[in-house]
Every structure is written in structure tokens, then in C-alpha cells.
Amino acid sequence: MDSGIGLLAATAAVRRLRPDADLVLSLDPDGMPWGPRTPEDLTTRAVAVAEAAAAHRPDALIVGCNTATVHALSTLRARLEPDIPVIGTVPAIKPAAAGGGPVAIWATPATTGSPYQRGLIEDFADGVTVAEVPCWGLAEAVEHADEAAIDAAVAAAAALTPEDVTTVVLGCTHYELVAERIRAAVQRPGRPPLVLHGSAGAVAAQALRRIGARPEPEASDPGTVTVLLSGREGVLPAPALAYAEGRLLQAVSPAP
């Protein structure tokens, strides 16, 4: 679940680990973007989207959104667990800091500077220089596959990123869909190759662990994909097909 197509990164990661998995993608086009909403309003939207997915009786629910994880994870777990394990998406600060830094965390304005993110920095990046970079408009630009807006938002965030940064944490799942464009914008001439850390792979692996499933990337029978748009069955939004992750999921037959 997510406000929009930011869930594509984690969903595609699950698809690669378990091609036979039946997937339910619950998006909220009526309420997107979630980032500017108050925590209370965001939580209300997230609960509605989660309950729409839960009606399909999934084995687990991935909250494919950092901002929703920050503000709504405890509420979602209180409502759905233990019947449905809920897996949040946490910025990959711990593995990024393990490289020694300096580190920049690109995140939505709602996540940047939040007590949740500051807590992760304190817990996992002690002694490493960390810059929090708010990415104004980037999630929305990615959501609409607006090439000019993506370029402008990436350039603006790159300008806020310190010159000596060696590692960037992609603290919003939308950003993983344009990771190479971010790398190109931040990579400095004469500096070592920039390291990017997303969350999709780790989240997908954690979801399988929570339900006791093993990765089987060679599984031959493709699973189905059901798309929910603010609770209504539909199809992947057209902008999703601008990204490799969306095209991978479109190639799967929809659920009957």
C-alpha cells in the first residue's frame, strides 16, 4: 500500500523474489499526495487504503511509503496484527552509515526533520555526518512521470546536498524509481562512485520472512496482480508504465 506508485519498487522486489506471489496493490489517487497532510489526516487515509487491501485477505501488508510508516505504522499494526503482519518501510540509514559517510538522506518534507527520522539517525548513524535533504515536489513529479518536474526537483535537492557526500539514502519509495537520475545529479567529478541505498529489497525480504516464505526467483507460475484505487478495483495508473518496475507488473495477467 502507498499513496501512489511509490509502492512499485517494493512490489517489483517481491515479484523478483517470488514470481508466483499473488499481489494486491492498494493506492490512494483520491488522496495523493500524503506528504503535505497532517499526521492525523494521513493516518486516516492510510487506514482506509490498508483496510481495502486487507479485505483481500493477504498474508502480509507492506506499507510501501516512508511517510506513512513514520505517522501511521503503529495504528495500522494495532488494527491488523496479528492476523496480517504489517511491514513498514524505514530509510536505509543503518547500512548507509556503515559505509562511514558523509551521508545525505533525501526524503519528503514531511519526513525530513521528523522525530522518527532523527531517532533513526541517532540510533544508527552515531559518529557519521548526516545531512537531511527535503525534496520538494519530487514524489509528486515521479507520481505523474513528469520528466521536466523530475529534473527540476532532483536538481533542487542536489543543490542542497553537501559536496562531500559519498552516500545517499533514498528516504521515499518514489525516489527509487528515478535512482539513476539522482545518482547522475549528485555524483561529483573526481569523487568516488556515489552509493545509493533504497529500502525495496530489504522490505520485500522482510515480508517473506514474516510469513515464513522462502525466495524462489525461478518459480514458473506467475502470480496475479490486483490493483485498488482508493478502494476501487482498477488498473495501474498510466504513469507507472514509465518505469521498469511498472512494466514488470503490467506483464502479469490481472487477477480475475
Automatic annotation (TrEMBL):
Listed InterPro entries: Asp/Glu/hydantoin_racemase, Asp/Glu_race, Asp/Glu_racemase_AS_1
Gene Ontology BP terms: peptidoglycan biosynthetic process
Keyword Isomerase in annotation: yes
Entry annotated with the keyword Isomerase: yes
Organism name: Streptomyces aurantiogriseus
Gene3D superfamilies documented for this protein: 3.40.50.1860
Protein name (Swiss-Prot/TrEMBL): Glutamate racemase
Pfam families noted in UniProt: Asp_Glu_race
Keyword entries, A-Z: Isomerase
Gene Ontology MF term list: glutamate racemase activity
Domain of life per record: Bacteria
